[in-house]
Amino acid sequence: MIRAFNQNEEFDQKNVKLVNNNILANQFRTGCWEWYCIRMDLTSTLVMGSACGFCILNKGRIDPVLLALLLKYMMQLQYMCVWCLYCFGLIEQQMVSVQRFLNLQDVPQEETSSSFAVDQLWPEEGNVEFKSVTLRYRPTTDPVLKNLTF
């Protein structure tokens, strides 16, 4: 169809523009995600440093098992924070889709009426008839269909 209407260049230009917009949106999304991850890494590093300082200062006063447990959970803090942000982002994306769907339900529908005036010369049913059709892919090739009738 595109070649038939000689729209190759317009199609290519529009396709490149749409692909570029998609790539740009993905780069923004990835950049925001990386920004969140860096912030969470810095925050969890500060909390981990504080927990290590707390463990060093209370080395003889608190049971070593509790201090080891504290350090173990502090090491998982960064992963859990990033995972929670990822889940919240997915929920937000899905809720935007739901919101769009609910907005589409409020769009007024076109009225359908059965009183459609049709010209008397309009045919009752349509048929496509092929009589002695010969078809080739290119002018320089042999015919693929020869004298086809149906």
Overview features:
single chain; 150 residues; mainly alpha; two-stranded antiparallel ribbon
Strand order of the largest sheet: 1-2
Number of strands: 2
Q: How many helix segments? A: 2
Distance between the termini: 24 Å
Principal-axes shape call? elongated
Would you mind describing this structure in some detail?
- The protein has 150 residues and is mainly alpha-helical.
- The chain has a domain at 1-103.
- The two termini are 24 Å apart.
- Helix 1 runs antiparallel to helix 2 (64-105).
- The protein has helices at 8-57, 64-105, and strands at 133-135, 145-148.
- It has two helices and two strands; from the N terminus they run ααββ.
- Helices cover 61% and strands 5% of the residues.
What is the structure about, briefly put?
By secondary structure, the protein is mostly helical. The protein has helices spanning 8-57, 64-105; strands at 133-135, 145-148.
List the helices and strands and how they pair.
Blueprint: H1 8-57, H2 64-105, E1 133-135, E2 145-148
